[in-house]
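Reopening this ticket.

The earlier resolution said the output was attached, but the attachment link was broken on my side. Pasting everything inline this time so it's all in one place.
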Amino acid sequence: MKKIAILLLFIVFFSSCKEDKKEDVQKSETTELDTTTNKDFTLTVNKIDSTQLPASVKYEGFIKNAVRWKDQLGDNIVITTETGYHINKKFKHEFEDSSDAELFAYHYIISGNDARQTWKVYDYISDCPVDLVASFVKNTFQITDLNKNGIAETWLMYLTVCHGDVSPSDMKIIMYEGNQKYAMRGENKVEVGVDDNGKKQFLGGEYKFDENFKKAPQVFKEFAQKLWKDHLIATWE
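Inline output:
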């Protein structure tokens, strides 16, 4: 119990660290979705790189994923990017040695040389003087058509945190089908010690569905829950 008490004291101490986060979603217009089953549609997703992007596609940060596919909405491109540790002058910095980190995701519909942005996801940590993370969880980015309606779903999963201890990070799953956003928010799980019987002790792991996810098809909720479970335990790579 002594080990756990010491770790919890560290967690309480560093929880006072300034952590500035914002999940920002921008949409250009609403698209009506055809939710009927489309058995004739086959989803084919191709990886692309920056050289294959139309000139009108704009993004910030360094590309982590870039894909292209066609569905009932048209010719789609999704890009996810991260800045890594850096200093962004748009943020106020109260700590001398603080850093910022930002992540982005963009969806475009392509028509000829024209790219129309339909949504954007943005989140960040700013002014952090200790360890910070704002990054997508490895091997979680996916494009699916789980409800077989010919409109692809985009799955994003990422972590944000500013801490100087062993404590959970904020973890989110953001999914889009067309312009409809679904969000699952909570914390990952971290091992903080063992009890007197040698049993591992953990913090974190809880999540909540937003209202859209609560009303979503069961196949969406089951996929999100499996994604969360598969990447729940923090790893220190």
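Reporter confirms the inline version is readable. Confidence is low (pLDDT under 50) at residues 1-20, 27-31. Residues 2-14 form the longest helix (13 residues).
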